[in-house]
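Marked as duplicate of an earlier ticket. Keeping the data here for the record.
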Amino acid sequence: MTETTGTATGTFKIAGWDEQPWAEAEGAPKLTQARVTAAYRGDLEGEGTAGLLLLYHGTDATYGGYERVAGTLSGRPGSFVLRLDGGFEQGAARTTWTVEEGTGTGELAGLRGAGGYVAAEGEAEVAFELRWSLPASSG
């Protein structure tokens, strides 16, 4: 089967961050959950809503979760879910994305891909990259 492939680049801004304690225990590292919304611009245009679990080690943290992104990818409308894995240390958040198979809708049905970003603390706009592929019949 022939595929259509591409690399989407652009930027995103955090539109909302609501982080709350989760499963606290005295003397244990801080564990929180966060609902995060983001606005994407560039080859990926749209809005993302993520749920994250964060484990803090002092001022550093590791995290994982899922984000539903709705909008257009290289002009193709639809939505998809990203699995997020990352960590925050030395003043930067490093996140790896993987498109969860079977989550693409609209013209993004069958979407596969991976990418991510590095965000410096306090950075207002963050550059991202998503390497993607779609079955030829999807666009």
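See parent ticket for discussion. Residues 80 and 103 are 5 Å apart (CA to CA).
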